[in-house]
Automatic annotation (TrEMBL):
Protein name in the entry: Haloacid dehalogenase-like hydrolase
Transcription as UniProt keyword: no
UniProt xrefs under Gene3D superfamilies: HAD superfamily/HAD-like
Keywords: Signal
Length: 349
């Protein structure tokens, strides 16, 4: 049966589009990425490791991609999302704990003393997080987290956290999986918190999440065995801990790894120093209009040593302003819906 003139025109147009993307190395599967050298580098790497017969071919079982979470897959300002969740939980649970009105760091939260909250040390942050996570099963904690995510919004943008996921990175995850990669998260945040949302937010199942964790204990309550999270810290998945955590959980060096801060430095160094083709990526927050501009001067997402190392090791640095046509889901390409800030935002700022 002969083609109609209209069908023939459409066929030729699709053929030309296919030829264009094949010849330029630009992928139609990353629509929120601008056609820059960064996008071309990603597509070129994926093409060479998936092309059978190529000297750089990597079998699917070795195509491991690992991503940091905060500041890499979703926004981390004004503070890490898990800390914001924990602060809201303290407020919710406060009526059951009247002593918190005078006990720090809870008193600062209940008085909404933001200045004091911004100066919290690691011990106080850990106390807040452990208080809102421990003494329950993972099922109970998942329910609490997902209930919170239903209504919670970023305090600076007013957007639900689901809409604070970076659209280009969401597309990158899908693009890698479509090319036979297995995608993991390696975060300094709590593993149970991220597992509660990783599948619905990123399409990453909980068993492919690595994070900081508390020790667990086994309880058998009248024939109902349970695993309970204790308040004893077991492992901090940050800095050198990220490389160790990946080795412990996956047992392989990733061939594709992405982060955004100095906390990801050792993960990037270790992963990209393996044999064969490797791809290291750093997200550089340069966009003060559509997101925030920050790096070495920020307590959240501090980026200094890793940025310098990127030049030494040849990692790809994503310039958010230049490389991303869209930052958040449903954002406009040229004119942001809302100008969030034009100056660097510090921890809590």
């Amino acid at each position: 049966m002969a083609f109609s003139q209209r069908k023939l025109t459409v066929f030729c147009l699709l053929l030309l589009i296919n030829i264009f993307f094949s010849s330029t190395g630009v992928s139609a599967d990353l629509p929120s990425w601008n056609n820059t050298s960064t996008k071309s580098a990603i597509v070129s790497f994926v093409k060479k490791v998936t092309q059978e017969g190529s000297s750089d071919f990597v079998p699917p079982e070795l195509r491991i991609a690992v991503f940091d979470n905060d500041g890499t897959l979703w926004a981390e300002k004004p503070a890490y999302v898990q800390l914001l969740f924990a602060i809201d939980e303290i407020k919710r649970l406060a009526p059951e704990h009247p002593k918190w009105q005078k006990e720090q760091p809870f008193a600062s939260i209940l008085k909404e003393d933001f200045h004091s909250l911004l100066t919290l040390g690691k011990a106080d942050r850990l106390k807040i997080i452990s208080t809102t996570q421990t003494g329950m099963t993972d099922t109970e904690f998942n329910r609490v987290v997902n209930s919170w995510l239903t209504d919670a919004k970023n305090p600076l943008t007013g957007k639900p956290y689901r809409n604070m996921v970076y659209q280009p990175m969401h597309e990158l995850l899908e693009y890698l999986r479509a090319n036979g990669f297995k995608t993991y998260i390696s975060s300094g945040g709590g593993v149970d918190f991220i597992r509660a949302l990783s599948m619905s937010f990123y399409g990453i199942p909980p068993e492919q999440v690595i994070g900081s964790r508390f020790k667990l204990r086994y309880e058998d309550d009248d024939g109902h065995p349970q695993i309970i999270t204790t308040d004893k810290l077991d492992f901090v998945n940050d800095g050198v801990g990220k490389a160790i955590g990946i080795s412990q959980v996956i047992g392989l060096r990733p061939i594709f790894v992405a982060g955004n801060s100095d906390g990801d430095l050792q993960m990037l160094e270790w992963s990209t120093s393996g044999k064969g083709p490797r791809f290291g990526m750093l997200i550089h927050h340069t966009d003060s209009k559509r997101e925030w501009s920050y790096d070495s001067g920020s307590k959240v997402g501090h980026l200094d040593k890793a940025l310098k190392a990127a030049k030494l090791y040849g990692w790809t640095v994503v310039d958010m302003t230049k490389d991303w046509a869209v930052v958040f889901p449903q954002s406009k390409v040229t004119t942001p819906e809302k100008e969030i800030s034009e100056t660097p935002v510090e921890d809590g700022g």
